[in-house]
Amino acid sequence: QVQLVESGGGLVQAGGSLRLSCAASGRTFGSYAMGWFRQAPGKEREFVSAISWSGGNTAYADSVKGRFTISRDNAKNTVYLQMNSLNAEDTAVYYCAANLRGSDTVLVHRYQYVYWGQGTQVTVSS
User: Fold this and answer.
1) Contacts of 77 (CB under 8 A, 6+ apart)
2) C-beta of residue 97 within 8 angstroms of C-beta of residue 91
3) Burial of 17 (0-12, 13-18, 19+ CB in 10 A)
4) pLDDT at 59
5) Dmax over Cα atoms in the chain, in whole Å?
6) Interval 18-50: pLDDT, tens
7) Shortest CA distance to 109 belongs to which of 65, 66, 74, 59?
């Protein structure tokens, strides 16, 4: 089992940047595929980005492609989401997710993830 704790959210002006972090417990972090999802008020939780256990494979939602970058440091049990050129549509609670994978692939659907963090609020003012 793994526990996930997100941090790095906050209030930022449109055009600004934030870096989210997700710290994971456990000694097998390097075997977990990781992902970021977000949920805006009144909307369903949606996929943002994902990374395979090696970090060699990544995926992004079309809405964030070219602006967000996912990365991971397996030595620190942490996955990051660098968010640039933020706009009001990026305002949401951002969740980190994890699941064990036998292969070095990305997971892009909510149902593929077993472990979730508590979320961190990102608010972009226009």
Assistant:
1) 23, 24, 25, 26, 29
2) no
3) exposed
4) 98
5) 43
6) 999 999 997 788 889 999 999 999 999 999 999
7) 59
